[in-house]
Amino acid sequence: MSAMGVLSQLLALVTALVLAPLLTGWVNQWRHWLQNKSGPGLLQPYRMLHKLFQKESLVAEHASQLFRMAPYVIFGCMLLAGAIVPTLSTDLPLSPAADAIALVGLFALARVFISLAAMDVGTAFGTLGARREMLVGFLAEPALLMVLFCASMITGSTSLTVIVETLAHRELAIYPSMLLAGVAFTMVSLAENARVPVDNPDTHLELTMIHEALILEYSARHLALLEWAASLKLFAYSCIGLALFFPWGVAEANAPLALLLALPVLVFKLAVGGMALAMIETVSAKMRIFRVTEFLGTAFLLAVIGLLVNVLLGVG
Amino acid sequence: MHSFTHPGDWLHLDWVLVVVCAWLLIGCAGVVALRRFRLVATVLFPAGAFFSILLMAVALSAAFAGPEVAVLPLGLPQLPFHLRLDSLSAFFLLLIGGVSAGVSTFAAGYFRKGEGTPPGLICLEYHAFLASIAMVVLADDAYVFMVVWETMAFSSFFLVMANHRIPEIRRAGYLYMLVAHIGALGILLCFGLLQANTGDYTFANMRAQHLTPFWGSVAFCLAVFGFGAKAGLLPLHVWLPEAHPAAPSPFSALMSGVMLKIALYGILRVGFDLLQTRIWWWGVLLMAVGLATALFGVVFSTVQVDMKRLLAYSSIENVGLICAGMGLSMLFAAYGMQALAALALTAALYHMISHAFFKSLLFCSTGAVLHATGERGLGKLGGLMRYMPWVAWPTLIGVLSCAGLPPFGGFVAEWLLLQSFLFTTGLPSSFLDMLVPVMAAMIALIAALGGYTMVKYFGVIFLGQPRDAKLAQAHDAGMWERLGMLWLVTGCVALGLFPNQMIALMEPVTQLLVRGGLAHTVADSGWLLVPVHIDRASYAPAIFLLGVLASFGLTYVLVRKLYHGRMRRVPPWDCGHPWQTARMQDTAEGFGQPIRQIFEPFFRMVRRLPTAFDAKPSYRVEVEDPLWHWLYVPLVSLVEKVSRLVGLLQQGRIAVYLMYSFVTLIVVLLVVK
To answer: Partners of B84 in the beta sheet?
Structure first.
């Protein structure tokens, strides 16, 4: 573990923490612009977090320890995810601790905790949200795993840093399997981050809400942590997507100059990705909850086909 | 051979036999103290647990020692008992000892006065079961194997029937016995083939025989059938969801945690050790059966409304996954890819031991809940975390482990399994090359569904508001029960955090069965679990846990330092709905509803919907196993038909029987001539 490695690891953590709310704000801003609204401004998520942290937390009478613990666990999981995914550099000392499968496990751990916490208070909406979240999860999780497996088959590794390094050094070629995986990944990320065709982050309508139903009982600092964790999740997913499909510009070991350059490149890639996300959300309509299974089932099948195409063409 | 005067000279095998005898003695002591409840609970069961720990220690030391053999002058005159302790037996003895230590401790506080079978008798059956299980893995000839195998079946039958006054339990026991014996028939035939007409039924002789591929395949299929009946592989799983709920909880824990693994031990022993040839389609068969079983099990477990049935189906799922791992190992071994075969086998073994710990823990927790509330249906439980924290928190660890989440034992097993399924390119057949990744996808789907089930299990029982007023009187587990559960929790956590040490224990087993191992790659990687190469895949559960805990702690402290930690208790918000009752929460049926809808073709459902004019509207849905109707019911009616035809021969008149004898005589004379 070199000093440079520790530095790039810390830098990756700070970048994730700071940039995540900004990315959420950027996507929201673009969504408003695309819908001919003025929008709350890029810094709104930070103001929101600051406001929530100041407030007094209201906890339901019979909520257990699990309920109060869950936001910290989920935030911890997402922070760790942000530290593992190669954002600026592939020289991450923490990266060997968790590969792509462990990363999916990390997201699953957070999902189980938020679902359990939602069931803890015992309200109608909480359990409804938990059920829907697990429904989305049980299809999205294997689909995400299959997308990552497509990349690991090409690169012969499940380690995210190795995947990025190997993909970045290949000559520019379009892999048919990665094309399929890319479509699948987009669909999964929309579902996992509670975005429009699957969930609507703006409403509290019981017919449609998933994520909002889960965090309905939370307030103040607990809610702030969950909101921050949600933006960290969006950030981590975006970075996984960038790492798999646009791996160029990420610094490698012993390249301090590249590390300086990596930050603007990352911000640029995220900005474009955020705009694309806002565009998708604007042009698509919210699905009924049982169409979600078809949507995610399609994603899963696409990723599996990608995997098979990989084997068929003998890549890697 | 060696002196018995000095205990220092004893072989590991002798120590194991000491434990077996001690268990039998404890069982007999139980019969003597038939109704002296306190003695049985506070002396005999803890003593049994002590010997379990001793067994575990012996197995740990025997894992790395060479094979030991012994011939006991028991049984029939010409057929002494041949015993052998090799690394495979040692691994399973470790599993038996580790799990039964926790379960016996739990059982010390579990049994109550005046419930079904007297406690002394349960003590006998329980310890006879443990002793016979330990003997199964030691057996080195078919004769002793069948004797102890049947002892295991009978003692477990009596334990399942502990509350025999309830008709459903009698039915479950009967079904269990029936399937167990159909399976035993398969095993017997398999041994008959393996000895290849030599008349020598020792395992050493069977290893020396080289069967033709055809007879080898028949023997293998018979073994999968026979042992699969005990393990709960499709389509012989029907007894499992009936027998597990019927048995007292500590015994359900042993059945699911240990007995199913012993059945898988049988497949390993026959398929990898006794049969010298390996054929690629044996592996594919195991994988296909395993994955079908796993998918079936997990889909059914999500829709169960009885907590023990839910766990029983989840056990079917896990057995299926283990089987898939074993199948993959067989496939690799058939093509001479030792390193990958060892990886897949390690994954299967890891899954076995971690499933043994977490599933026993979960069954123990259902026992504690059952005693505290008298309720097994998920629909009437809820909110127990407040009243039973000593049960709820250990269960949470078990649930996370069962859901295959890091950093617990279940995840390591799943991780290894996925790794072994992922790097398969290089198999000689392109068809197999395509098949294996598809199977990896199925495993991912099954694992994710397992998470769904576990959230349902924990959420509906322990979280939310109590669905019944009497739950407020639920009492927490007693001292022995807590101790037993904590032991099992320790197992789950240790399996999660120290995978390298555990894999080192499995190395001799994989060396024995597939002549390859992971220890050399694992040994010098420190905290990292590196099964193949560091650039290929790595995982460090301890660092993982530390990362989550550190960010947890830092956040907790920083939020309080930078802002404040003020909190106020208020009524729940629930979008401002004013009247909320516990009945507005999801029931177990409600939580499983999406899965019921998605996987509708899997089930046979009987729905009763209320009409608009019902004075007391009620909704009822029953989910049944379609295999029962497609396979078993026609089979039973066929058997009945055939026996009715045979019955036509029975006329009850002596003249007719004399004529039968006469006709037989004529036919025999004709044939002989």
So the answer is: B69
Residue B162: pLDDT band with limits 50, 70, 90: confident
Q: Round to whole Å and give the CA distance between B559 and A185.
A: 34
Q: What is this model's ipTM?
A: 0.93
Strands (E) across A54-213 are located at 57-60
Residue A285: left if φ>0, alpha if ψ -120 to 50, beta else—which one?
Answer: beta
Distance, in Å, from the CA atom of B590 to the CA atom of B598, rounded to the nearest integer, reads 14
SS3 call for A22: helix
Query: Chain B contact for A192, CB < 8 A?
Result: no
Q: At B379, which amino acid appears?
A: G
Side chain identity at residue B328, one-letter code: L
Dist CA A38 CA A29 (whole Å): 8
Separation of alpha carbons B410 and B592, rounded Å: 23
Helix or strand or coil: residue A316? coil
Beta pairing partners, B529:
B539
Sequence-ordered list of residues with C-beta below 8 angstroms from that of A149, at least 6 positions apart, any chain: A100, A158, A303, A307, B422, B437, B440
Q: How do A57-60 and B567-570 pair as beta strands?
A: parallel
Nearest chain A alpha carbon to B445: A142
Q: Give the whole-number percent of chain A exceeding pLDDT 70.
A: 97
Contact call for residues B102 and B394 (beta carbons, < 8 A): no
- Residues of chain A falling short of pLDDT 70: 1, 172, 206-207, 253-254, 314-316
H-helix or E-strand spanning residue B623: strand B620-624
Q: Which residues of A touch B575 (CB under 8 A)?
A: 125, 204, 206, 216
Look-up: residue for tokens 């790097």?
A: B423
B575 in A contact zone (CB under 8 Å): yes
Here the tokens at position B476 are: 């927490």
Distance of CA B327 to the CA centre of its chain: 17
Burial per residue of A161-174, b for 16 or more beta-carbon CB atoms within 10 angstroms, e otherwise: bbbbbbbbeeeeee
Could you read off the pLDDT of B362-374 as tens digits, one per residue?
999 999 998 888 8
Q: Cα angle vertex B463, ends B462, B464, to 5°?
A: 135
Do the chains contact at A145 and B444, CB–CB below 8 Å?
A: yes
**Among candidates B411, B549, B569 on the partner chain, residue whose Cβ is nearest the Cβ of A61:** B569
Would you call B139 helix, strand, or coil by DSSP? strand
Token output for A206: 């019981």
